[in-house]
Amino acid sequence: MRRPFALLAATLLLAAPAVPASAADGGDGDEGFAIKDPRVTESSGLAASRLHPGVYWTHNDSDDGPYLYAVDSATGETVARLTLTGVGTPRDVEAISVGPGNRLFVGDIGDNLGGSWPYVWIYELPEPKKLQDATVRATQYVVKYSDGPRDAESMVVHPKTGRVYLIDKKEEGGHLYEGPAELSASGDNVFRPIAPVELWATDAALSPDGQRLAVRGYFGGIHYAWNDGGIQRKGRLSVPLQGQGESVTYSADGTRLMYGSEGTESPVESREAPGGEGGGGDGGGEGARAEGGESTAGDRNGNTVTVVAAAVVAAVLFALVRRRRRG
């Protein structure tokens, strides 16, 4: 369902001059990498492992099965594939997050039919201590919204409390939804809206200290102070222009934001995290964009043609997304 859009986006991106990447050449995966596994063609979620430094967990969007992939950011190679049991057939897996005690949470929360499913699912499983292909039993939770079904692609788990939060995906902006203090495997888990989010959100991430929330869209992002869930907007994020920007996570040390995209050998691009060590400002430096807007800064080499071209591509991609959303 998403591949025609992704192909169009890739064509437009190839036709435009390249925007300089912020990642430095070198072996540090937190400076960016590419997911080389040919089985991962629709990477839709990203989470930095705290148990295995330099490893990032990802998964496909749909039509893949109950699989998680552990990717070594130093090489881009998959070092483990987990097969989940104890769950039904995944429908539209959109997000992954790490909770307290190195627990992995997987959000099967997407609804490409615009909110037609009466419930969605979250899966929880322990992160393996040893990285190798394995079958892992997961717990499946039934999720409903207090104000009715909806599409969502963003899920965060608070690193201290373990509470799960979702952000629904709406072109005009959505809401942060808070789940129960503890998820129950025996009944419905009702999520309730607690704060507006001013973005057409495709993913979100909480910083390792639980103090900062980063929310990304296709062409921009916003960062918030967490404030116990009463989020306060702080500024824009420097989101790279990607073919179909679907994921974001903090690096394990909280100093970088890692942005992922769908596609074969999809890149994961790194940006300095606002408020991280050595960081500062609002994160809206070179390449920062509002949703559907233009770049806030020029090319570091002074080549404004590149920036203009990137802005044009962003505008065309935004129009394609809107058309696809309404089609």
Could you explain the architecture of this structure?
The protein is mainly β and 327 residues long. Helices cover 11% and strands 37% of the residues. It has an eight-stranded mixed β-sheet, with no helix packed on it. A hairpin with a 6-residue loop joins β11 (152-157) and β12 (164-168). The longest helix has 23 residues, at 304-326.
Broad shape: globular
Radius of gyration: 18 Å
Q: What characterizes the major β-sheet?
A: 8 strands, mixed
Q: What's the average pLDDT? A: 83
What fraction of the residues are assigned to beta strands by DSSP? 35-45%
Q: How much helicity do the residues have?
A: 10-25%
Q: What structural category arises from helix and sheet content?
A: mainly beta
Total number of distinct structural domains: 1
| CATH topology name | Neuraminidase
Q: Please give the CATH architecture.
A: 6 Propeller
CATH class: Mainly Beta
Strand order of the largest sheet: 6-7-8-10-14-13-12-11
Unreliable stretches covering 5 or more consecutive residues: 1-26, 278-318, 320-327
Oligomeric category: single chain
Distance between the termini: 11 Å
Succession of helices and strands: HEEEEEEEEEEEEEEEEEEEEEH
Tally of contiguous helical segments: 2
Strand count: 21
Summarize the structure.
By secondary structure, the chain is mainly beta.
What features would you highlight for this structure?
single chain, 327 residues, mainly beta, Neuraminidase, 8-stranded mixed beta sheet, 5-stranded mixed beta sheet, 2 helices, 37% strand, globular
